[in-house]
Design a protein that fits this description.
Layout lengths: L1 E4 L3 H12 L4 E5 L13 E2 L15 E11 L5 E13 L1 H14 L3 E4 L2 E6 L2 E6 L2 E6 L2 E4 L6 H5 L8 E10 L6 E5 L8 E5 L4 E8 L3 H11 L5 E10 L8 E2 L2 E3 L15 H17 L3 H23 L4 H10 L13 H11 L1 H16 L1
Parallel strand pairs: 1-2, 1-10, 2-6, 4-12, 10-17
Antiparallel strand pairs: 3-5, 4-5, 7-8, 8-9, 11-14, 11-15, 12-13, 13-14, 16-17
Helix pairs in contact: 1-2, 1-5, 5-6, 7-9
Length: 363
């Protein structure tokens, strides 16, 4: 039996693939229902088309065609997206993937909490009852504070952004995703429309996130809030292993999140595909996931670390340096493939970034 802890996109997707291949799979979820609470903005890039499972139209709340980058001095540049981003009903996405896993033969155990793993045996708690299971493999898909990682010496020293978000009433252009720089010292603010009158508005910050969030809502003059969400965004670290013996980590539990944008749904699902190959064919998971997504995760981290050294004036100059076509084909999931193309299209941006890098190195 393979036990997967966490019925988010990564865990359910892995369970689906393994069960389709005839594996005996238990999918463990500590909450009473899959997909609740919501701790994600629910943006999916066009790279989702490469997954082995299709996203049904009924899960799509909106489609984003343009991205607007806004500097601290309120200058902005707007870019048309070559391929549309999808804004999903995140709860419905999780439930859909969980249902597909069950249809394929997975046993879904709700309100079961992982509490221990020793000598190939998993211990779970369900309403006070302790359940022990012998397992062939244990997979942690249980989020940034992964208990599986802690019990298998894979947790390490982790760092997080605290993300705060609300759904609020605000007049907006339905196809336009807004990104505000300078609203926090180490991330950004976002306005993601569901329609012309409601948007998902949030920020990320390592410290003082509540204060920055309050100021951001005041900046946007938000008066009517529908609901709130909050959660941790793990900061990618390329060094630690994501497996130990028969224990494996995927998704947020493995820190497989893009540091540039904080998105992790697709990266986690791609890691699930590589772990599926590993478990079915007895291959090295570490080599597989690093080859598939490791380079792009590292590049995303380096870009984020570079941007985090920017002052507000640096961001003002950055936005002024862009031309309108610079990011049209930029792929957030696979920046290695598209970054050179961005630079070739935008020599003014190249000059600014080179001068900024030189300043950082020699001051």
């Amino acid at each position: 039996m393979i036990t997967i802890v966490g019925a988010g996109p990564s865990g359910s997707y892995l369970a689906y693939m393994l069960a389709k291949d005839g594996k005996d799979v238990n999918l463990i979820e500590e909450h009473p229902e899959v997909g609740n609470p919501i701790q994600c903005t629910g943006i999916l890039s066009s790279s989702s088309d490469s997954l082995n499972i299709k996203i049904p139209e009924k899960l799509i709340v909106n489609k984003i065609k343009r991205v607007q980058l806004i500097s601290p001095d309120e200058n902005s540049k707007t870019f048309n997206l070559k391929e549309h981003d999808l804004i999903l009903d995140r709860k419905a996405l999780d439930q859909h993937l969980g249902e597909k896993a069950v249809e394929a033969g997975t046993k879904l155990l709700l309100q079961h909490r992982f509490i221990d793993y020793k000598e190939n045996k998993v211990s779970l708690r369900n309403r006070g009852e302790i359940i022990n299971q012998e397992v062939e493999a244990l997979v942690g898909a249980d989020g940034p504070n992964s208990q599986v990682a802690k019990f298998s010496n894979l947790y390490g020293e982790r760092k997080f952004w605290v993300a705060r978000q609300c759904r609020a009433k605000i007049k907006c252009e339905k196809d336009l995703f807004k990104v505000h720089f300078g609203v926090t010292p180490d991330f950004f603010g976002w306005v993601v429309p569901e329609n012309e009158e409601i948007a998902r508005i949030g920020i990320g910050a390592i410290n003082n996130s509540e204060l920055y969030f309050k100021k951001y809502l005041e900046k946007l003059n938000i008066k009517e809030i529908i609901d709130y969400q909050a959660g941790l965004i793990p900061i990618y670290d390329p060094k630690p292993k994501r497996s130990n013996g028969k224990v494996y980590l995927i998704g947020d539990a493995a820190l497989q999140v893009k540091a540039l944008s904080g998105g992790g749904i697709i990266k986690g699902m791609l890691a699930a595909e590589e772990l599926h190959k590993s478990l079915v064919n007895n291959l090295d998971y570490e080599k597989l996931w690093r080859k598939r997504i490791g380079t792009d995760l590292t590049l995303s981290l380096k870009i984020r670390n570079f941007l985090n050294k920017f002052s507000n004036e640096d961001y003002n100059q950055l936005i002024r340096a862009f031309n309108e076509n610079a990011l049209t084909s930029f792929n957030r999931e696979f920046p290695k493939k598209s970054l050179l193309n961005v630079m070739l299209k935008n020599p003014r941006l190249d000059f600014f970034l080179l001068s900024r890098l030189t300043k950082l190195l020699y001051t």
